[in-house]
């Protein structure tokens, strides 16, 4: 067991690998919860040091928009960043998305937005760069973490309590009282009490500890084009009363939603090139060879002519949007990922967050929100562990759950709470993509006309479980349920 009384003096050090939206929110959450807990627990004296290591020369987000559902926006507000989030978000005007026919823009089904909550908590579709800047500004203003750049992590080594190198603990137990050493591409290293892998879908941290068949990407057969266009260029003669729309056809769909205070339209256009089993959708000359060469990378670009060709049969509003996209829009291969059965290793010294733990297809707009939920729960749990352990060090009684008596049990609590929900969203996103492309098992046997009612019925309640859950309530129920059982047994 690795309680704080077994640790060396000095602050408890948390190293976060990856300075994207998930990594920065995680840093803010850990700082927020530790400050809140320690201010109400005067016996907590050790302190905490959070370091964020980003591999790029600067903190920036590649990509266009990000959908922050009300479940994630709620947590940003609880960090005290609600006003800033409102300033950068788009307004959905009461509609999450209207699903439309691709050929004449006729309505298939309208999915209402989640109702705003007290304090103006609402859906917050944002530009990724704006959201990152909001979190960066908060970290700097609050002194929440030390930010490092050009620190590409190449591996971690679990150290024993005496500082000796015990090698990489792939099986995940680690020695009590040990630390973790991080190695970087520039030849430098650092040590920490806990390493948080927020390094995305191609996570170096995960790949070191998860070596089985589940740690692999799975070809979805879909590519996506991305871009941002000015809403001002579309306002004249725009045929709809809102900006959030998805046009659907067999094996492709085109979506757009507003960001940046409704001054810009985020555009993502999906095309399935291969069905399950690698069956080609289109045998156009060179089409399949071109698909093979597309990377799973947000920095991959293509010629606009490819978007024009793939969506030539779509209605006039889509054509207007495409005409405003950059001549070199983003294009990347959408890969699915097998669910992981374990998110923490080395006795709780190494833990995964966000895409490193549960990379998912983007079809529910929930990936960033799930990363935010991860960071929030990890921050709460780690703060309970630190305060509980400090209380024991001074022989004080602690009302905290036994789930926070060690790092390993703390990280297991985090995993027990977050893994089932994240993997449910992961699975639902996979199904949603097939619904939008009208290529579920049922729809494959139907014509376009007959597929549309199936889509409409399937979508009506699809987002409810993502938006409605208050993750703090779930945390309290899991923690307090154990405490109630203990009280009943006494």
List the helices and strands and how they pair.
Blueprint: E1 12-17, H1 21-39, E2 48-53, E3 65-66, H2 70-78, H3 82-88, E4 95-101, E5 107-112, E6 126-127, H4 128-142, E7 146-148, E8 153-158, E9 180-184, E10 189-192, E11 194-197, H5 204-209, E12 217-230, E13 245-249, E14 252-259, E15 264-272, E16 274-275, E17 279-280, H6 287-292, H7 304-310, H8 316-324, E18 330-337, E19 344-345, E20 350-352, H9 355-358, H10 367-393, H11 407-436, H12 441-444, H13 448-459, H14 464-468, H15 471-489
Parallel strand pairs: 1-2, 1-11, 2-7, 4-13, 11-20
Antiparallel strand pairs: 3-6, 4-5, 8-9, 9-10, 12-15, 12-18, 13-14, 14-15, 16-17, 19-20
Describe the 3D structure:
The structure is a single chain. With 490 residues, this protein is an alpha/beta fold. The chain folds into two domains: 4-89 and 125-215 and 338-436 and 463-489, FAD/NAD(P)-binding domain; 218-337, D-Amino Acid Oxidase, Chain A, domain 2. The chain is built from 15 helices and 20 strands. It has helices spanning 21-39, 70-78, 82-88, 128-142, 204-209, 287-292, 304-310, 316-324, 355-358, 367-393, 407-436, 441-444, 448-459, 464-468, 471-489, and strands at residues 12-17, 48-53, 65-66, 95-101, 107-112, 126-127, 146-148, 153-158, 180-184, 189-192, 194-197, 217-230, 245-249, 252-259, 264-272, 274-275, 279-280, 330-337, 344-345, 350-352. It has a seven-stranded mixed sheet with strand order 5-4-13-14-15-12-18, with helices on both faces. A hairpin with a 5-residue loop joins β4 and β5. α10 (367-393) runs antiparallel to α11. It starts with 11 loop residues before the first strand and ends with a helix. Mean pLDDT is 87; it is low at 1-7, 162-176, 393-399 and 486-490. It comes from Apiospora kogelbergensis. One of its GO terms (molecular function) is FAD binding. Keywords: FAD, Flavoprotein, Oxidoreductase. This is FAD-binding domain-containing protein. Pathway: Secondary metabolite biosynthesis.
